[in-house]
Automatic annotation (TrEMBL):
Residues 130-180 are annotated as: Disordered. The keyword Transferase applies. Its EC number is 3.1.1.61, 3.5.1.44. It catalyses: [protein]-L-glutamate 5-O-methyl ester + H2O = L-glutamyl-[protein] + methanol + H(+); L-glutaminyl-[protein] + H2O = L-glutamyl-[protein] + NH4(+). It comes from Glaciecola petra. One of its GO terms (molecular function) is protein-glutamate methylesterase activity. Residues 179-367 form the CheB-type methylesterase domain. This is Protein-glutamate methylesterase/protein-glutamine glutaminase.
Length: 367
């Protein structure tokens, strides 16, 4: 696999080159966005790692040109700052597959833990269908800073004729228990491709939608705060990041704080969400598995709805399958729209789904 490394830091380029080549990748380097565009036609990379802040042409402008002229998988390299997070979400809206954190401090200390994740993200990016990334939400510039008052039809556009006529797969629950339409809680697990996927679902929920929604999106802490604020401008419901113990309220969406896990508890008959430190028992964070397990422990299965969206790995699959066996409603995003079909695909393999739907149909299924 060929990777084009684009960064204005010579040190960062060398470190990334060494990391990728040790893993068997073929690499080439570019110093800025303009240099990147020049090398695309000669090197023909499978994946581009693209820094955001660079002279001459920055990563955002470079990405816009790539997506317009010769779309290919791009993984952004972002700094852990608020400005870096904002720019990263703009890049994801424009069609970037994923992002990695630019290490701070000593490279060897920081990359020891994150190198396997970085390599896996690049491998996964190489397999992504660009057609899925070039959705109405990702190609419409209005989606980058969409205001709250935009309705779903103006923001997302209409499904293609193929999508409108597709038969949606629906499975009967395996549980003997009777399903209830009244839900007390909806929990959502999502990773790679999550921001655009959630932006294709949550703004379609109207202000009368009352069931609390708790989301575990694999993402660093500084990014989840910015992401919650961003979603809050797009949704009719109130979107907040959970950094302290909070009672779950109607008409609210709760985003788990990054670099931590989120758990559900019950006190005096009221449900709470709380951010808790990570533990070695769970691999990905915020952990979808831990969220689903604690929700299942505190809510009757018939009153719980679990949604598994795009992402690599299998976080949450076993827990949602168990919840489904107990009588919970479980929805998996279909391969039609999932940028990475890993997480929902693992759930589908287990047979733990009530419905398998493309992301544009999930909001209607929740109401």
């Amino acid at each position: 696999m060929k990777v084009l490394i684009v960064d204005d830091s010579a040190l960062m380029r060398r470190h990334l080159k060494s990391l990728f080549e040790e893993a068997g990748f073929v690499t080439e380097m570019a110093r800025n966005g303009q240099d990147c565009l020049t090398q695309l036609s000669t090197f023909k990379p499978d994946v581009v790692t693209l820094d955001i802040n660079m002279p001459i042409m920055d990563g955002i402008e470079c990405l816009k040109t790539i997506m317009k002229t010769q779309p290919l998988p791009v993984v952004m390299v972002s700094s852990l700052t608020e400005d870096g997070a904002e720019a990263t979400f703009k890049a994801l809206a424009l069609g970037a597959v994923d992002f990695i954190q630019k290490p701070s401090g000593t490279w060897t200390q920081n990359m020891g833990e994150s190198a396997p994740i970085l390599l896996e993200k690049v491998r996964q990016a190489s397999k992504v269908s660009m057609q899925k990334l070039r959705s109405p939400a990702s190609t419409n510039n209005k989606s980058i800073n969409a205001p709250r008052q935009l309705n779903s039809s103006s923001f997302f556009g209409k499904p293609t004729p193929r999508a409108q006529t597709q038969t949606l797969t629906e499975r009967a629950p395996s549980s003997r228990k009777r399903q209830s339409t009244a839900k007390k809680l909806i929990v959502i697990g999502v990773s790679t491709g999550g921001p655009n996927c959630l932006q294709a679902i949550l703004p379609k929920l109207n202000k009368e939608f009352s069931t609390p929604i708790v989301i575990a999106q694999h993402m660093p802490a500084r990014f989840t705060k910015v992401f919650a604020e961003r979603l809050n401008t797009m949704c009719a419901l109130n979107v907040v990041e959970v950094d302290t113990k909070q009672a779950l309220l109607a008409h609210h969406i709760y985003i788990a704080k990054g670099d931590a896990d989120i758990v559900i508890s019950k006190t005096g008959g009221r449900l709470y969400a709380e951010s808790v430190p990570i533990t070695p028992e769970y691999i990905w964070h915020p952990s979808v598995t831990r969220l689903v397990e604690t929700a299942s422990a505190n809510i009757n299965a018939s009153e719980l709805c679990c949604v598994q969206l795009t992402g690599m790995g299998n976080d949450g699959a076993q827990a949602m399958n168990k919840a489904h066996e107990q009588g919970a409603t479980v929805i998996a995003e279909s391969n039609e729209t999932a940028v990475v079909f890993g997480m929902p695909g693992e759930l589908v393999k287990l047979g733990g789904t009530t419905k398998i739907l493309p992301n544009y149909a999930i909001a209607k299924a929740l109401q």
